[in-house]
């Protein structure tokens, strides 16, 4: 551990919560150098939907590398890329009626994809303002950071974060306040001070922001608002996409058609750096190379992503299983809520992107600490880090879910009863 | 090809110059799906210093994957990371007297590393202005793009690019004009209008900008200027580093000590996405997670990078060979220059980062086209794309160099004689 | 008229509504070169609270000029400035318990005062964000324009308007929605995306924005919000101040204590360019000359402002008369509303800053046109220019008010009945 | 004095150098409340070209006020404005072949005029970048401040100052370095990092920047550069215009035709707040009211400005006298230079905008202090406040010049001999 502390920048963070050295990983399990195994409810913050080292993907990658498949080729045509384009088009886009999208491979991180989408929206519309939402997270490079809400990250920008207007997310002011109506008034008022936006960027479920899930109705109204005011609709599906909510895209069943969709995290399927912007063909007004990056088009990721799509998305079995497991986790959580905090705890999120909101960040942190000590890697999210977040691989077994729920139950028991005890002693 | 055109965004660029589908690659060779082989003088724009699929690195990676080594773990501690930290420290930093640097793993692209370095410089100094140079290239996300000079990229920003003051690079105004003296005057003048900069970001050899190589004297003076005016010195060694100029860092023999160094491209050794900021320990004022990204710490890249450093940098044989090959290429180029344009062509660059400046972008493009038709993948750089740029893998064989030089010679012969003929016919 | 069209920029605006050439003006009357007289309900957009060429002020100014009083002295000490400082302190500040404010004389326009206040707020707090409100108007220079809501003006900026977060004004979303509570939630949420503001800038009655009057309760809550979140409270009293609402400051009876107050428009009392920032002494962290301007401290304006304060504000008679006349105007308006649009017209504003909101900008414009043809100079305001705005001099006589009301009544009669007729014919 | 210190913000500055209370002023004389008279070599920082209270202007203003001439009418048509338009057109524009300019009356300060010019340049060209020069001064509101060089002012902005590229003024790097050639290279290089500018804003003689006078050749080349690169040429003639350099505009004899000219300071002739942008008719693409301000079109200033133009500019006598007096002052200064610092002092500037550059700011300040004690109000300018600046009224008498020169001579004698003595004692 010393070696890390001596040589790695203090910016490192997750390792502080999980001070062990991991070496191997399989499916929903992380294994330390000392052979200790943990159930992984962090899931690479949404990057490991198909688990660690999934055998089908691993096989494909080993074969590719073994055969000297081209690894790095900038954005030159490669066989691996062609297979990805064909497969993604055939199994993801076409079955969903999305024939008219093209794919842009940006630098292989979510923030690079967001930067590209915002640039293109501004270029196409000739407007510079972007609407993003309270508690939204879109990345840490300056262009994307301007759209991100988190002050911890914004505060490190070093320059003003401009050309973004912040709007309240669904239910931000409670379920009585119609935030779409508010936006409509602001956008229709020529002296509201909100400059006409090029686009709205939105997560259908906000991951880092605390597992806030917008209703289908809100999302549909948001799309209508975009059409009314000439704004593009960008869905940032980096964390909620690739099956996490029970369908490939998080917005599938909502009946909307975004202008652009950013994907990354679980897109490669194997945890490899990879990012893509899906954009409606008519918006593809890029000049060659106008937005670029050395690692755009990671061929290893093309290979594993193609294998993942072929394996998991050729029919609806996988999606169904995700919904079933999501229910199993929700059931487990409901028990915890009823048992330890029927008035202070509540469930947030959708599909397998759910968690329990705790009274505060301290108790949530204590719960995660306790869980880790008992074999479960799990983290918090939310404005006050108050949500214990379950982002386990979608391929997790029912047994693993149950085991994790047992660990979580014990953690809540320990922390919440201590809290109750403290409150009681303060009250007396 | 149709499939690419239908499904991939028009932003794709290199594939337009090389309209074939590559499938495999080995060492300095790219191989199409049809089995046609090309010598690679593009080298992933500096990403493939150790060639494609180098057997030692490949072996290490195959083993790691085969053994279910952890692929994605955010910034948790991993065995692979520890080995990289230890190896980089032992074989790169310590022998160069750079004990007091720590490593920050940013999102795995160059632009993410630059974003991190600029943020940190601003945070540490409390200033927002950054000096960058004419013809400099530092990436395409908004924070880095502000420091990049290229109008093609800047024009797509969609928002103003702020908080950067542009200064003339070494010899930008010819070798009679002392650009360091100019900067000194501007920085020392309280009404010059140049706000005190947090940092200077500089490439010691400008890759995209046209293989402009600063002299050791200029770089040393620049460091002194930084110290005098309280600016940090950031060397962007993303393209020129990792051995390209004949030493691991491009500035090694110059006797300077940058405050931060950004590395990416060839750092993984295998073409995998990877990026790092080296920073002087006293500047490591990051709070945990303040700058983050999902793919920071790519374990596959740790594995290949560690293997590469062990293999190539345990002694100075490799560096020596780079310098020797650089000379061989320069000799070949000199012949071309003397033969086809003693007054109109000239050599630019340093080490194995060299090229031939042509009279204009059209002739350079024609030369690259001709070369490609004869089996050589090569591209241009420079403000007017006028420099035919040789960025071949450093492990290229002498025979391959000679073959490439023969192809290049023929290309210059064809294009330059045509040009001369055109001029003659215009003159008559 | 030709001469104007040939020689003056097309940016000119009010002259388009009132295409006559004015020559003289007295009290509440404007007189054209041809001797035609108009009642002035425009009042220099709030600049002529004491009427045109008030004899007491005029006398003071004539004496001063005749005696070769210093006109322009930058910010050197002058007798005229000293008398203004003493008088303003004695008759305005002290009786209102505002002992601890100092006066800053900025360039003599409202926008310059706002620029100064925003700069100082940012300097003192070390924050850059400013909260301003929907429909707020604070000026047209870039710093102030960022806080202004009007798109017509914002659209001409030519650069992004940054470092301002827009919030909904009192009742912006109707009287059911608690906009203070909304702000509190946004400001207390560390991932809302609203960076901690240096200050809030607010008009207690929004003039250009459509005579929106905030309640005392809302303003008091806003002040509390400022204290809670460490934001300074800047009241922009440029249009609503100097007696317009029935007290010297528009917020007097509300029991708040702003950190800064910007004044201009009627401050000189004579229509002369003049502007001032009142700031709490502890905020006076300016270094000498840090914010400057050639015409800061207009001595002619000091002279007339001093005379105006001595004449109008040595007791409460004037304030009382303003409230009485405000009521007289409101009564007249009420009759108009009841007569021509009990459901479509309504009264907005406070004191002598009131108007009638019309169904749309076209009808409001038609009403003003009709009124002008019958001897009344009057203009619109509001997001859609839908409010017929009465900003007559506060010294107007009851007879003049009554005459103006008769003209207005006829204008509403003509336009609203025509509207009703149109609607009827469309319906049939 | 106490009253000022108690009640006026610490931002006040000139009064600190001249701690007396002025009351009256006539011609080139300032008179304190105690009856002490000073020769005015500060001249309102260029605002009092025709002296204080010039009898002809004073008479016109008294008559106008006495007759209840309209003082404030926003931008409505007034008789006084019409007379100004006609007179300025007839006596200034037409004789100089400038038939095709229109006049825009902005808020009555220089910075407001600059804000308007920059906005319009950006609007017309669709570009956002502006070139301004080292040591340039253009005002303190955020839009203008971005173009200003002075760090004392820039440092108080509180927000980044963006969309301006700073270029070296004529001779900034000495007379060997061709700064026009440098700009040409930067602007013609598509990867220089200098975005295509909307306009160049330049002072032909830099007042605040230290009386740097560009040669006619440099200015002509600058105009050509503007035409070549599609940039508008804005001459900021706020300080150098209105006769200061020996012709109405500072650039008259240079044979250029600026796209826009900003005027303020001495434009009213009487020290009244007033500002104007002259712009080529084809650039007049303003929509009505797009850029506005309450005090645009100060009628008192129209009256005095018209009188001033009629009196001073109906023939070339006044311009001739300015050139003659400029020479008289220069002769006096030359004697001082030869006497007290043939190697350390030198003369800067042009016409009656000249001064003596001292070894440093301390000696310049000491000289001004000494002069003030002996009856001369004079200030410094320049990056280090090292230039003793003579901006006396142009109507000053020869006797007053000679008297002032005697005072200055004594001041230099006292300070420079002391300096020499100090140096001698340090050396020994």
Automatic annotation (TrEMBL), chains A, B, C, D:
SUPFAM superfamilies per the UniProt record, alphabetical: PLP-dependent transferases (SSF53383)
Entry cofactors: pyridoxal 5'-phosphate
Main EC class the enzyme belongs to: transferase
InterPro entries in alphabetical order: Aminotrans_3 (IPR005814), Aminotrans_3_PPA_site (IPR049704), Dat (IPR004637), Ectoine_EctB (IPR012773), PyrdxlP-dep_Trfase (IPR015424), PyrdxlP-dep_Trfase_major (IPR015421), PyrdxlP-dep_Trfase_small (IPR015422)
Enzyme Commission number(s): 2.6.1.76
Cited NCBIfam families: dat, ectoine_ectB, PRK09264.1
The protein's name in its UniProt record: Diaminobutyrate--2-oxoglutarate transaminase
Protein species of origin: Pseudomonas aestuarii
Gene: ectB
